[in-house]
Amino acid sequence: MNDINNGKVVKEQYSSSSNLDTRISIHDKYSTNKQGFGNWIFSNYQIPEGARVLELGCGTASMWKGHEDMIGKCSSLILSDFSETMVDTARGNLGEHDKVVYSVMDIQDIPYPDDSFDIVIANMMLYHVPDISRGLSEVARVLAPGGKFYCATFGLHGIMEYLTSILADYEVKDPTSRNFTLQNGEEILSPFFGSVVRRDYEDSLAVTNVEDMVDYVYSLSSMTALGSIPRDKMTEILTSHMKDGVLHVPKEYGMFICG
Q1: Is residue 167 part of a domain?
Q2: What CATH number does residue 101 fall under?
Q3: Predicted TM-score (pTM) of this structure
Q4: pLDDT of residue 19 exceeding 70
Q5: Are the C-beta atoms of 219 and 157 separated by less than 8 Å?
Q6: Cβ neighbours of residue 151 under 8 Å, at least 6 residues apart?
Q7: For residue 74, what is the enclosing H or E element?
Q8: What gap in Å lies between CA 14 and CA 4, rounded to an integer?
Q9: How many Å apart are CA 42 and CA 168, to the nearest integer?
C-alpha cells in the first residue's frame, strides 16, 4: 500500500472513535488475561519523578484513566495523535490536568527540540507510519540521554490471522500492515537505539456472545471483502467455530523497550 493510500485508510479508520471503542471493548470483555493489556503496558513503564513524557498516537487516552499517580510523577505529559478527532476524544475522556497537554502531532515531524523528553511512548501505531525510519529518527532525536522509548505492537499470529483463516472461503484478506510487528520490530528499532528489549503479553479471547465478535469484525473497515458477507452469515460462521459456547481467538501482543 503506498503512503498516500495508507494515510487515507488510517484517517478513515480513526475519523471516529466508535470503531476503536468497539475493538477495545471486546478485549475488555473477553480477554483471558485479566490484568488487561493496558495495565500490563503501564506495569512496564519506568517513569521517574519529574519526567518529561510524550505519547504519540494516544488514541482515546483511555489507558491513562486510573493512573493519576503516574501522571502526577510527570513534570509534563503531552498526549498527541495524528487525528484531531482522537485528540478531542482524549481530552474528553481524561479531562484537563495541570500537567497534561493535548496536541495534534505527526511522529515524522515532532515539533520539539533535541533531548526534550525523558520518556516517549508510541503504542499500537508505528505500523501506520508511512516513513517509519523518519519517525523513529525523530523519536531518537527528541529522547534525552538515558531516556526510554516504549512501543507496543502486535504479532503476526493473533486475531487477524485467525479471522482470515476462518473466512478464507469468502476471500477475506488480512490488511494488517507488517511494517512493524513483534517479529520484525527489533530489526527496525536497532539502528536508532542502543538497547532494544522485547516483552510478550500472554493472552487470548474467550468470546461467549458471538454478536460482540461480529461487531468487532465489521469494525475492521480496512479488511477486504467483509461487505460481501451478510451479518447473519458472519454470525453463523463464527458460531460454527465455538466450542462449548465459547469462541477461542488467539492474540499476540507485546512491546519493545528501547534506550
Answers
A1: no
A2: 3.40.50.150
A3: 0.84
A4: no
A5: no
A6: 121, 122, 123, 126, 180, 185, 189, 255, 256, 258
A7: strand 74-81
A8: 16
A9: 36
